[in-house]
Design a protein that fits this description.
Length: about 325
């Protein structure tokens, strides 16, 4: 499933001057007694916990699914790595993904928050309620980014890579496609809602909290220029997605979300955009799958989205909504 990104030179030229100014957010160097690990030691611990809980989550998913489904662990492991499109395989993919994601995203985020004696509301800036105008802008920003991102990812994938690197990138891409195709084999509305919860709501909440909350906050207390912190968290965000052909796309969306969070001192709006983008991707896939099931005509997201005539007006929508999202000027509602 494609991941949001926006690569528009007009946006860069428009906002980079602001980004290069000294950080004026109300974030000072953390007090070692109050927030002892809101620093690079804390970041190292966070990344280590993410790695450790990937293995923990995998183990929990294998044994819990084996228990509830009455299957051997070897069968569960095989269907997790070789999904075959059966109902059992689809449910194993969905619930193992749910268990693992909560483990390697949720638990590390909770532990680092507790160790720093702070709260979710403080890290996420949840007390900063966004205006209705900005919420609407966040929705349209996400919608506009979908075709732009698709075009950018296609261009990135077409770049010349060394054969060995291209082989690794293709292997990662194929594995992702098989996994998402299996999870998104949706026949009923309740399945659609579950996939939206799993692949849109949870990432919008937990990924934004970790990358635009914890990691961005750590960067802003260490680097003098906000742009460095924003690009830093975006790089980590992209690397942890393990997708060579989508690296720059993920990096850029991470940077845009980071800038939105920085300017609003909150992850509300970036979370909303993240949720809408992922939900849009799921709905497009669901729509195309229904067309295939009803008519036998096969299609995919690229057929619709990789379209420069669509990407151009979409990029204009992105630029306009981005301006609304990052301006601090009060807008009458």
């Amino acid at each position: 499933m494609p991941i949001a990104v926006e690569n528009h030179l007009t946006l860069c030229h428009l906002f980079l001057p602001t980004l290069c100014k000294v950080n004026r957010m109300n974030i000072s160097a953390p007090n070692s007694n109050q927030m002892p690990l809101m620093n690079f030691w804390g970041l190292s611990l966070l990344l280590l916990l993410i790695l450790v809980f990937q293995f923990v989550g995998y183990g929990i998913s294998v044994y819990s699914l084996s228990f509830f489904l009455g299957m051997e662990t070897s069968e569960i492991k095989y269907l997790m790595s070789h999904p075959d499109g059966t109902a059992v395989s689809i449910n194993i993919s969905r619930f193992s993904n749910l268990i693992q994601f909560i483990n390697y995203m949720g638990i590390p985020a909770l532990l680092l928050t507790l160790v720093n004696r702070t709260s979710w509301a403080n890290v996420g800036g949840y007390s900063q309620k966004p205006s209705v105008v900005k919420i609407i802008a966040a929705i349209f920003f996400a919608l506009g980014s979908v075709p732009v991102i698709a075009v950018l990812n296609k261009l990135t994938a077409s770049l010349p890579y060394p054969d060995s690197l291209a082989a690794i990138g293709q292997k990662l891409t194929d594995a992702r496609i098989i996994l998402f195709e299996n999870m998104l084999d949706i026949q009923r509305i309740d399945e659609l809602l579950f996939c939206i919860f799993l692949l849109a709501f949870l990432p919008a909440f937990l990924e934004e909290y970790i990358f635009r909350g914890l990691i961005l906050k750590i960067g802003l207390t260490h680097y003098k220029k906000p742009i460095t912190s924003i690009l830093f968290q975006a790089a980590i965000f992209s690397l942890l997605h393990f997708s060579l052909f989508e690296f720059w796309g993920i990096f850029l969306i991470g940077a845009m979300f980071g800038y939105i969070a920085f300017k609003n001192e909150s992850i509300w709006l970036s979370s909303i955009s993240h949720f809408i983008f992922n939900t849009t991707s799921i709905l497009i896939h669901f729509y195309l799958s229904n067309i295939f099931n009803n008519t036998g005509i096969a299609s995919n997201e690229e057929t619709i989205l990789v379209n420069f005539s669509l990407a151009l007006p979409a990029s204009i929508i992105m630029a306009l909504t981005m301006y609304i999202l990052v301006t601090n000027k009060r807008i009458k509602e």
